[in-house]
């Protein structure tokens, strides 16, 4: 908008006090919701008094005036005098014009409807409690079919192999309170283990699905990455977790080291300093040259041994001494065949 037209809009504002701030207890999201409801309501109730509008939206008349002063500067793209909302309330009665486009319900294009339908269908297939997604999907399909017969149905193949089958089994076990037998890959030991688990919940954290449950093999509550479950079988056994099975507070760290975990201090070159950001740790000391000393808590020292061998000369174990010796011995054993050949 040009300066001239902006000044015209300011001059046209009613001679009321300057825009007032919203009530202290109201969030910006709450006010936005009221404004979106206020526009179509005022269009249907032309000439309504400030007091009646205030009662309708459970705010003060002064707040309604403040909302109108904000709406007076809103409109459709272009934002010139012709696109801005026209609001008048000089005599205490509100008249709204040039707001029909904003008050009109949002319409989805066919591509938008298809994308949203596919997303909801995919989400519904993996959620444990998918009632809300299912209801939304049903409404969307009904509306799409009404506008375009056949357009609400999408053939979406969500079966990506064993992973989809695993999630189906886990959902069944959780819903029926049944114990589940897992074939679970343990990355730290590079092996697949067999264990029975009483499920507590399935959660998504940072885009990754996790299963939390009472593991009878470990004798405690454990988190399992769903993508590392090779197979899941629902057992005909009650799967109610024992009373001492307490869900972890997800506002804290997901993986909390136990008292029995080994404390390891590693020194890395600048090229391997990324491990301080990649692995949960107990502390990091950074040097001016870019090298770091990082302290880790590990349940299995094999994880550290494999990490050190992979990093080669870019990292070394500082403590405990016995682990540093074990890493050196393993590295020497790996180099021995090459030395013999030479």
TrEMBL record:
Residues 262-335 form the WCX domain. Residues 13-26 have a biased composition (Low complexity). It comes from the Bacteria. PROSITE patterns: WYL. Residues 166-234 form the WYL domain. Residues 1-11 have a biased composition (Basic and acidic residues). Pfam families: HTH_PafC, WCX, WYL. Residues 1-26 are annotated as: Disordered. Residues 30-142 form the PafC HTH domain. This is Proteasome accessory factor C. It comes from Intrasporangium calvum (strain ATCC 23552 / DSM 43043 / JCM 3097 / NBRC 12989 / NCIMB 10167 / NRRL B-3866 / 7 KIP).
């Amino acid at each position: 908008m040009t300066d001239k037209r902006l000044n015209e809009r300011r001059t046209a504002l009613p001679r009321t006090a300057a825009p007032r701030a919203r009530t202290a207890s109201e969030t910006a999201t709450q006010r936005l919701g009221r404004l979106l409801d206020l526009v179509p309501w005022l269009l249907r109730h032309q000439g309504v008094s400030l007091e009646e509008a205030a009662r309708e939206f459970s705010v003060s008349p002064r707040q309604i005036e403040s909302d109108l002063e904000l709406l007076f500067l809103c409109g459709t793209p272009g934002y010139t005098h012709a696109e801005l909302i026209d609001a008048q309330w000089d005599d205490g009665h509100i008249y709204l014009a040039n707001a029909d486009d904003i008050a009109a319900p949002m319409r989805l294009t066919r591509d938008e409807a298809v994308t949203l339908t596919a997303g909801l269908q995919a989400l519904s297939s993996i959620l444990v409690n998918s009632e809300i997604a299912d209801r939304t999907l049903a409404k969307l399909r009904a509306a799409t079919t009404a506008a375009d017969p056949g357009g609400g149905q999408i053939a979406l193949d969500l079966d990506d192999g064993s992973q989809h089958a695993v999630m189906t089994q886990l959902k069944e076990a959780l819903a029926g309170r049944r114990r589940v037998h897992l074939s679970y890959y343990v990355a730290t030991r590079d092996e697949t283990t067999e264990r029975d688990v009483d499920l507590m919940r399935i959660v998504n954290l940072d885009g990754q699905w996790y299963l939390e449950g009472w593991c009878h093999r470990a004798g405690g509550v454990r988190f399992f990455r769903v993508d590392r479950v090779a197979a899941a079988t629902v057992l005909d056994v009650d799967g109610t977790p024992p009373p001492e099975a307490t869900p972890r507070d997800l506002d804290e760290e997901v993986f909390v080291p136990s008292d029995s975990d080994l404390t390891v201090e590693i020194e890395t070159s600048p090229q391997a300093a990324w491990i301080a950001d990649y692995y949960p740790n107990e502390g990091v000391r950074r040097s001016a040259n870019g090298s770091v000393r990082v302290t880790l808590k590990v349940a299995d020292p094999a994880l550290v041994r494999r990490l050190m061998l992979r990093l080669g000369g870019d990292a070394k174990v500082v403590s405990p001494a016995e682990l540093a010796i074990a890493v050196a011995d393993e590295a020497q054993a790996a180099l021995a065949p090459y030395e013999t050949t030479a």
